[in-house]
């Protein structure tokens, strides 16, 4: 492919010489024995072809008649997986900590087997701390006020009288009767 | 069908399939061997024109045929095997040149004088020619990559503009315009170098 003669700009500027140089390099002969070396390397190279991606590639293609081999292999795999899972579960369950609190064994004179002494300390059971009720401090106003009698009941309203539950003699039904006031009435006759 | 017959027929099937596979593999090896003997020289020259190192060029050719071996199943679908192979080796050498930091052997003038054929020249003339070639190649290296690639491929007599376009992956008109630009740039570079002397 030679376009340099068609281009007047580059005709006399040495570009054709440059293209000659490139052509010289492009026409260099290949070294001797190149084909043999390449063929030898191809022979040594592993004959790998582009296979489709597989999850499991079986070493030999099993025919359909030997499908039971695959079934047996699959069953063995399932058995191994389940067995392993069961083993893990059993291991986890046996290694769970005991729920009861183990008390230290009684030793003479309170000396532990390690040589340490608890110095006669009493063991107290671990219980929940009950909520501490804070006692209200008496304020100065409360201390100045008179003490209220706890027995004193508020007086009944003047218009109402307290009712007493009694049974009627005639009917035997409970009847509400007004109770006579036990409070001492003021003597109005006196001046 | 008795069990014996079934076994024997299965065995025959396996043997038949093995023979077919063997014949197929043998045919593939034959086709690959024919490709090697036919195009290894061309591929080597293409590789050498870019790498300008004999060992690297040979490695590139080997890698090209290794790729062909890997995709030998689709070898029958290739329309033009020559251009297809040149395209493979072209991509390989461009990738290698991008990665390698070593200078090409032909940057050395003495090495260039050894490699390039100079018939009927004295030692002085040979040295002068080698210096000139080295200078030209240095100017080619200064060209932009797109223009440089088209110019180097155009130096191969066996590649026309359509095939160059197929190798580079552009249209034929782009090849022509790039080649035009490359020549103008090259002329400018050579004139500039001449004025400096």
Write up this protein.
The complex is a heterodimer of chains A (191) and B (197). Chain A is mainly alpha-helical and 191 residues long. Helices cover 29% and strands 5% of the residues of chain A. Chain A is built from 4 helices and 2 strands; from the N terminus they run ααααββ. A two-stranded antiparallel ribbon of chain A has the order 1-2. The longest helix of chain A has 28 residues. Chain A is elongated, with a radius of gyration of 56 Å. The termini of chain A are far apart. Chain B is mostly helical and 197 residues long. Chain B has a domain of 102 residues: Rna Polymerase Sigma Factor, Chain: A (Orthogonal Bundle). In chain B, 79% of the residues lie in helices and 0% in strands. Chain B is built from 8 helices and no strands. Chain B is globular and about 75 Å long. Chain B starts with a helix and ends with a helix.
């Amino acid at each position: 492919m030679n376009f340099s003669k068609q281009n007047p700009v580059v005709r006399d500027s040495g570009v054709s010489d440059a293209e000659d140089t490139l052509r010289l390099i492009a026409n260099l002969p290949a070294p001797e024995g190149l084909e043999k070396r390449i063929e030898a390397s191809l022979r040594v190279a592993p004959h790998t072809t582009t296979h489709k991606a597989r999850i499991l590639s079986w070493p030999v293609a099993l025919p359909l008649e030997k499908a039971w081999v695959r079934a047996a292999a699959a069953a063995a795999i399932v058995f191994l997986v389940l067995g392993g899972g069961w083993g893990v579960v059993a291991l986890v369950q046996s290694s769970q900590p005991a729920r009861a609190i183990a008390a230290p064994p009684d030793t003479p004179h309170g000396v532990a087997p390690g040589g340490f002494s608890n110095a006669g300390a009493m063991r107290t059971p671990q219980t929940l701390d009950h909520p501490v009720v804070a006692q209200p401090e008496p304020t100065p106003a409360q201390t100045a006020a008179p003490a209220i009698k706890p027995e004193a009941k508020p007086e009944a309203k003047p218009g109402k009288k307290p009712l007493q539950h009694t049974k009627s003699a005639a009917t035997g039904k409970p009847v509400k009767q007004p109770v006579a006031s036990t409070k001492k009435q003021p003597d109005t006759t006196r001046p | 069908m008795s069990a014996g017959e079934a076994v024997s027929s299965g065995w025959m099937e396996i043997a038949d399939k093995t023979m077919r596979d063997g014949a197929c593999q043998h045919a593939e090896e034959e086709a690959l061997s024919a490709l090697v003997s036919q195009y290894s020289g061309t591929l080597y020259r293409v590789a050498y024109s870019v790498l300008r190192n004999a060992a690297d060029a040979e490695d590139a050719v080997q890698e090209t045929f290794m790729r062909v071996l890997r995709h030998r199943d689709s070898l029958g679908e290739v329309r033009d095997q020559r251009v297809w192979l040149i395209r493979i080796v072209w991509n390989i050498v461009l990738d290698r040149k991008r990665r390698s930091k070593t200078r090409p052997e032909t940057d050395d003038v003495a090495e260039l004088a050894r490699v390039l054929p100079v018939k009927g020249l004295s030692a002085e003339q040979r040295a002068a020619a080698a210096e000139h070639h080295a200078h030209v190649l240095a100017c080619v290296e200064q060209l932009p990559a797109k223009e440089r690639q088209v110019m180097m491929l155009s130096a191969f007599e066996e590649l026309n503009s359509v095939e160059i376009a197929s190798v580079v992956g552009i249209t034929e008109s782009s090849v022509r315009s790039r080649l035009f630009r490359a020549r103008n740039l090259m002329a400018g570079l050579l004139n500039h170098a001449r004025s400096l002397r």
